[in-house]
Amino acid sequence: MKFFIDTANLQEIQEANDMGILDGVTTNPSLMAKEGITGLNNILNHYVKICEIVDGPVSAEVIATDFEGMVREGEVLYDLHPNIVVKIPMITEGIKAIRTFSQKNIPTNCTLIFSSGQALLAAKAGATYISPFLGRLDDVSSDGLALISEIRTIYDNYAFNTQILAASVRHPMHIVHCASIGADVMTGPLSAIKALAKHPLTDIGLQQFLADHAKGNS
Ligand code: G3P
Q1: Which residue owns the Cα nearest ligand 1 atom 9?
Q2: Which residue, of 119, 124, 140, 153, has the fewest CB within 10 Å?
Q3: How is the chain split into domains, by residue range?
């Protein structure tokens, strides 16, 4: 499973990249705003900075909601850097835009996926990735992992190439469960990625090894 980080924070992206396990980055307008990145030029420059840190796909989201606007914005984003993946919302106009980008071999990430029907439509349109929002479904007492499993079955039934990018990941067990049900990619916060490394028995065991070594060498 590929690991993407879901942030527009350059320090966090650098830290995850330095760990040597980072495959890509996802952003969205809320994450850009959280970093205080506003105004078209600043936003475009920020995407380039992210692309210069990570050697992998970087999702950059369109703001327009009409077909022509999404295609226009998506082309500007894609021209920024070869790593850019154009992120398009799951709306009817978005499906048309995904089809257009697919015909031009421009990679897309269809975002705001909350049902298998939406995932099926996006795959038929030729989306490179689809982003089911695991955590937001769990937040409203729905089963986000069950949705990802059903999408996995549908895509495997018909050998769709569209990759399932589990998004809205909140904690390390989300990542583990996504891996066990066959998500192609997960995108999550740095905290969830780093938490995978933690186990109290590891800390206790290491402390013991170092103490025993010190005793033997004193
Ligand atoms: O980038 C889309 C998705 O990962 C958002 O996550 O935590 O805002 O539900 P969250």
Answers
A1: 168
A2: 140
A3: 2-216
